[in-house]
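Fold it.
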Amino acid sequence: MKFMRDVTPDQNSIDLKALIHDLIEFIKNPVQRIRILPDWNWSSLFIVQILVAIASGILASIIKMDFGFWFIARTIIAMPIVTTLMALLLTFFVYYYFQFFENRSESFRKILILIILSSIPFYIFQIASAYFAPISLIGFGFTAILAVIGLCENFGVEKKRAYTVVGVLFAIVLVTWISNRSF
């Protein structure tokens, strides 16, 4: 049997109105919305990731009143690249967790959707981090809670294992955050 690639023209199209609706509904009730992940295509995934990162950076810069050259370099160029790479890294971590510890394969795209959606509280709290740096950890705590719920509800991971996986990730973020504050 030959496998043929789907060349449907609308497969990679982005329905911006639907994305915005999904995000608004997610922000209104994140716990309910993380239980059933939307079926976004790759283009939509990266658009959401990049736009949320840029919006978070712009709002943080407005609060700090920081609009120089570094504003553009940090907010519009560096932040979307770094956060997208981090989302992909976390997705790889969870993907290989399934491979090695659950002995099964899960959709990389579906895991990335979980990572991107569960990260939204982090981006929201990150806005105020210039005035109270530990608030980033509070945002990541909410992100961790959503990730546990998403792992259990969408991938059938046992709660204990989900807490362990997300706890390891939270510990890595905490150590990284503390080490960055030390320098």
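The chain has one domain: 39-182.
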